[in-house]
Amino acid sequence: MNTYLRPALSLVLLMTLVTGVLYPLAVTGIAQVAFPEQANGSLVRDAHGQVRGSALIAQAFEGDGWFHSRPSAGAFATVSSSASNLAPSNPALAERVTTEADALYQPALGPVPQALLTTSGSGLDPQLPPEAIAYQVPRVAAARNMPVERLQALVDEATLRPLVGPPVVNVLALNQALEGSVPAK
Fold this sequence. Notes:
- By secondary structure, this protein is mainly alpha-helical.
- Helix content is about 50%, strand content about 10%.
- The protein is built from 6 helices and 5 strands; from the N terminus they run H-H-E-E-H-E-H-H-E-E-H.
- The strands form 2 sheets. It has a 3-stranded antiparallel β-sheet.
- Strand 4 and strand 5 form a beta hairpin.
- The longest helix has about 35 residues, at about 1-35.
- The radius of gyration is 23 Å and the shape is elongated.
- The mean pLDDT is about 85.
């Protein structure tokens, strides 16, 4: 029995050391050298060096003077990140979307973009399509007493146009640029 047990335990300990300690340390070390910003969470800092968030995770912005992210089923908490898992036929989803649409609707702009009404798959998507940002421009401009053209220039600067896929705007980066240009009321 000892001839089988000792090699088996030795192998378990060796594999635990290799896969549970050495490999994670090697991958972490390589990531810190090759991709330090991404390995540390793609943190976004303000002018004073304070961490304001991550470029990869959405957060809630309240008040008319800020661009709002898309809704989050998990209240923007990374631990409970998930979609709402409500089917399109679910009355609770229809009620939530209708309530949100009524609250955001601006007659002069037409229907509210879907990205402002529905959650993303993770509930933490930090980007919005430019159409969803454009829908918010008049509200933010009025709240900040700022010319729409100046605000649109900030939006254009913050719009990312990837090689593949549609253009997107990171809401945190846009709000940070907005904070640097005109104080919120």
